[in-house]
Amino acid sequence: MTKEEGARKREQLIRDGYCHIEGVLPEDFLATMREESDRLLDSAEHPPEWQYQGSDLHVSGQDNEAMGNLLEWPGARDILNTMGLTDFTPSGIVIILSKPAGGPPLYWHQDWMAWNDPISLAPWPQTIFLSYYLVDTDFENGCFRVIPGTHRRRIPLHGQVEVAHQETAYFADMKDPHMFGDHTDAVDLPVKAGDLVIGDARVLHAARGNNSDRRRTLLLGWHNRPLTVPDHWTGEVPEPILNRPPDARYEGTRIPGKYLE
Fold first, then answer.
1. Full residue range of the structural domain in which residue 76 is found
2. What is the mean pLDDT of residues 88-100?
3. Residue 235: helix, strand or coil by DSSP?
4. What CATH number should be reported for the domain holding residue 199?
5. In a domain, 254, yes or no
6. What is the 8-class DSSP label of residue 126?
């Protein structure tokens, strides 16, 4: 990736809340990650709460060499650096998200948990997920879906969906037109094995169901940056962020409040 390409990807992430980078993981690394993911999935219990995610298996990079290698993989660091996202650090956990054959879609949701904090107004990404796809993924087997711009722009769907990753979402009715319906602004994102999707935690996203006869697996890692203005940012900084005490603590919530405009 050239510096110019990196800048374009960063601008897309800032504008749309996601970007797609092709051909990130080499085939030998992909094979290793597929083998280890399958091993872990085959030995794990799959509780009812996983029905829409397919799996939600959290693996520590410290405890699992393969997942640790993914979190510290130099290629990913090079991509983030080229995009100017130099101050992001991984959480230390890889989440295996694998839809089984015939698995249902994943509901619309966003993953930001700090909506009471003025940093929610940040025009730059503050918390991002890196999703590495282990198989070709399209409409048939459960591709990523996203509503561009919803990381910084409120739409009615924000108030119509259940709060993510809790009982009411885990067991939502698949006939719910808000949780599982189509949206006029939604984008489907087919990818190839080895591709990387980077997303802002605040953006509304979902996934299609897996109508194939094989697993659809991706590996997701959360990355965070300090509560500061990033070096790459040259635009306006919202006043509530400028006035935010550096040591302030705010009660966590997944429900968007006044800082989603």
1. 3-226
2. 97
3. coil
4. 2.60.120.620
5. no
6. S
Helices (H) and strands (E) in the chain, counts: 7, 10
Q: Model pTM greater than 0.85?
A: yes
pLDDT band at 110 (very low <50, low <70, confident <90, very high): very high
Among candidate residues 13, 194, 8, 5, the one with its CA nearest the CA of residue 88: 13
Please compute, for residue 93, the number of CA atoms within 13 A of its CA located in the half-sphere on the CB side.
11
* Residue 64 burial (C-beta neighbours within 10 Å; 0-12, 13-18, 19+): middle
**In angstroms, what CA-CA distances link 77 with 64, 72, 85, 118?**
19, 8, 9, 28
Q: Is residue 142 situated within a structural domain?
A: yes
204: in domain? yes
CB atoms within 10 A of CB 1: 16
Q: Is residue 111 part of a domain?
A: yes
Element containing residue 158 per DSSP (H, E): helix 157-160
Instruction: Place 25 in a pLDDT band, splitting at 50, 70 and 90.
Output: very high
